[in-house]
Every structure is written in C-alpha cells, then in structure tokens.
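Sample pair:
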Amino acid sequence: MSDLNRRYQRNENFVFRRIEDETILVPIKDNVGDMGSIYNLNEVGALVWELLDGRKTLCDIGDQVVARFEVGIREAQADICEFIGQLETIDAVVGMPGNTDEKQNT
C-alpha cells in the first residue's frame, strides 16, 4: 500500500477527457493517442486523477473523496492506494520527491 503522505503528479503524457458519461485516460506517444490503451475511470477515479497535482498528499485526496462520496476514510484510503498502484504500473503518475510530513497548502 502506498504511503498516504506521498504526493503524486499526473504524467503529462496522458490525456484525460470526459465524454458524455465516461471519463477516459489515453496515453500519448509520439504526439499520437494510443487507442489500444484507453483507460476508463469511474467518478472516484476521475476525482482522484484531477486532484493529483503534486501538492496534495494521498491523505488529502482521501479526505476529499470522503467529503464527496458515501465512503469511510479507511476504505477511501485503501482504494486510493490501490488506484495509485495501478496508475504507477502504466506510468500515468510520477511520485514527487521531498518531505511530505508537513501539511501542504491546497
């Protein structure tokens, strides 16, 4: 499970789009979308993706998920850590260096 004090930033080589009722991530290679690797996100995944700005910790993001959806903090944190692991697997996020113990301004 990822450390909840870690911060992540979206990989700029991924395009995030909302199309009607779907939210998708598409990796961009050589200025072309890789249509064989389109990832669908649910509402929670889309919110987490939008919040991955390199400043917010996973704990901060968990708090926002709990505030917006009917989910407990432990479940939200576990789901976020699992989702981050999946994003790391496809190189969609970059872990931010530095001390994450201090509260970030959001």
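The chain is about 35% helix and 30% strand.
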